[in-house]
Amino acid sequence: MSEIKATTVPVSAASADISQRYYAVEHHPENGTLLGFWIYLMSDCLIFACLFATYAVLGRNYAGGPSGAEIFDLPTVALNTAFLLFSSITYGFAMLAAQRKNVRATQVWLAITGLFGLCFLFLELQEFHHLILEGNGPWRSGFLTAFFSLVGTHGLHVTFGIVWLVTLMFQVGKHGVTGANYRRLACLSMFWHFLDVIWIGVFTFVYLMGVLP
Amino acid sequence: MSQTHNAHGHDHGHGHGVDHDDHLEAHGSMKDYMIGFVLSVILTAIPFWLVMTHQLAPGTTKFVIIGFAAVQFIVHMVYFLHMNSKSEGGWNMMAMLLTIILLFIVLTGSIWVMYHMNANMMPNMSNDGGSVHGMHDMQ
Fold it and tell me: What is the pLDDT of residues A13-54, one digit of tens each?
């Protein structure tokens, strides 16, 4: 009897020691969700890095097809860039309204942001449609494959950003700007501004440098 | 300086915690967003203007617009994404630095390797009668 006790005591002492070491002492950031979402965005950034690298390698392989200077319409791209930039600032206003817990203003600014996003998507899809109608689809050359992959992936992100944005408009309308909803708005804020950052790379490296001789 | 700022921030946060049951952490101010927006507009307009009106030689323009993109990237990070060395206990910054290192490896590695591979392939491939039209354009 005493022998069993003698063996169990050190074991339980050891496990107590382990639990203390692994569960009690660790420090966690205050709000883990935002850090986790940031790390997702960084992984997304690597996807775009691969697409940019592909474009850098294939971007001048025209295979007898059109070059960037022949198919890019810079005024349209400038307008698209303006749409995204305006949507960034209006999302900022939505966040400021959410900080004041003003449900109505948050929804209105979100709606304006979504409209700018839709304008951006409309112009981009029109550009794609135009290119494909002229026979310059992604199958035409290495350059166009890389172009459609990179710009299309960005457009897909904007599309899902708008779906998320509409979802949050209903969430905020139904439950108000609660702690959970504010956290979601903060995550979408990072997502939306991140897409604008990617667009800086797209208009600089694809469009502007594409039309340079 | 930073110590007093920290102490102030702590007091402020504590006061909020008492006032509201769910404390909303501030994500930027009106001033931050406006500064970021105005800077972004300027840093976007100039590269477009340079390219569309052919102000500079193409080689120079290339470097100048990359410079503007780099500055605008930092502006967006600071004023829109509120990046600083303290957010999330510094882990945001750490994750971003790691990503930038990986990004640098992926981009420079791909461009470097593919450029050299292309340079080595060229003499034989161009003898095939131009079946790889456009490849010589690659840089």
Answer: 555 555 555 555 556 556 688 889 999 999 999 999 999 999
What are B103's two structure tokens?
A: 């990004």
Q: How far is B19 from chain A (nearest CA, A)?
A: 14
Q: What does the DSSP assignment read for A192-210?
A: HHHHHHHHHHIIIIIIIHH
The closest of B89, B84, B82 to B28, measured between CA atoms, is: B82
CA distances from B106 to A40, A66, A110, B49, B111 (A): 18, 27, 36, 31, 9
Residue A213 pLDDT level (bands cut at 50, 70, 90): confident
Asked if the C-beta of A26 comes within 8 angstroms of chain B's C-beta atoms, the answer is no
Under an 8 A CB cutoff, do B28 and A92 touch?
yes
> HSE (CB half, 13 Å, CA atoms) of A61?
21
pLDDT exceeds cutoff 80 at A60: yes
Prediction pTM value: 0.80
Report the residue from A60, A78, A85 with minimal CB separation from B138.
Answer: A60
Tell if the CB–CB gap between B99 and A74 is shorter than 8 Å.
no
Residue of A40, A87, A208, A211 to mutate, interface with B, max B Cβ within 10 Å = A208
Q: Write the ipTM.
A: 0.81
Of A42, A77, A179, the CB nearest to B99: A42
pLDDT greater than 50 at residue A112: yes
